[in-house]
Amino acid sequence: MDGPEGSTGQPGPADRSHRSSVSSVGARAADVLVYLADDSMVPLAVENLPSLSAHELHRAIREVLQLPDIALDAFALWLVSPLLDEPSLQFRRNVFFPKRRELQIHDKEVLRLLYEEAKGNVLAARYPCDVEDCEALGALVCRVQLGPYQPGQPTACALREKLDSFLPAHLCKRSHGFFAALRGRGAKAGTGEQGLLNAYRRVQEVAGSDGEHEASLSPHYRAYLLKCHELPFYGCAFFHGEIDKPAQGFLHRGGRKPVSVAISLDGVHVIDCREKHVLLGLRFQELSWDHTSPEEEESVLWLEFDGDNEGTPVNKLLKIYSKQAELMSSLIEYCIELSQAAEPAASQEAGPASASGSSPPPHQRPQLRRQGSVVCSRIQHLSTIDYVEEGETIKRVKPKRTTSFFSRQLSLGQGSYTVVQAADSLEQG
Predict the structure, then answer these.
(1) End-to-end Cα separation, the chain, in angstroms
(2) 421, 388 in Cβ contact below 8 A?
(3) pTM for the whole thing?
(4) Rg (CA), the chain
């Protein structure tokens, strides 16, 4: 498939080379380079490339890598081009592959490829993580790359030399300054290098569920993926965008800030690219959406959700400027269709215990609930258009809103999104 990042794409490891995946094209044959998540390449000599289907190319890659049949669903072909030049062809996780099916995988090479992709997203801070989680994930990377922790070995030196191989770069830069200051004010020690070392000591050596020897790396690949499953944006497709900054100062200057929009089967997340934290996270039951095309005005994805303004319940509109607005809108719609189709099957798999209420519904997922967690929404950092509706009359709440209500959302019977009724104290629009 052509991935949602096909037109501009979130830069991945293979993008650093800025090379096309097709190195030579003739009347009959072409040499195709397919990039993997670990930055390696699979060269393929392809006959009659223009007539080759994506399914046939996918099968050729699976045969070279000797992957089992589950790889057909777990991975997809992505066309990625950060500079809008000739794209690179990447073999990456399929955004439509459910996490519950990922838990059933036991093939070591499939687990490794999924692990490498997840690790790359964590280290590049595409998956924002709290420090504690970065250390836990980094410790598993240490186990994979350095072997079991051995007391008395010069492990600290190895960690210090390759710290950015285990932790996101922004944590490596702060570990000697900002976090040192925190420890000086009485904060819990164990961040950065020392915290990583402590977490490395705690990595358990256990046998895999399929009888693997404890020296196998598969249990550690699986442990890494399970930890990433706690992140609500795991397995998402990324898009570039910008949002308005809240007005600041006497002149009410705002401007825009760059964001990543992460879309998966679980919902939509807007991530601050500079601060490395979530600004807004919504399940599909919690939003309405639409987009405006460049023919109408600047290409924009609109997200509408419930909120409050100084204690008054309101509907909030977030405006995301992006050339990929239409693509994001289409992906949201398709994810909703897939989720709705999958719910009956997931309920049957869960068995009668789920129907009795003893198990959570399939759409619920484990979330990190720490106070101030980077995965929690920061609606106060958003510049939104707030409004209420009463019949056909719009009552505005500062700041001003445009004239747009959206019908694109989950059916009212399934979603929690509601239209807020106007209060007499609100400003008439």
Answers:
(1) 46
(2) yes
(3) 0.78
(4) 24
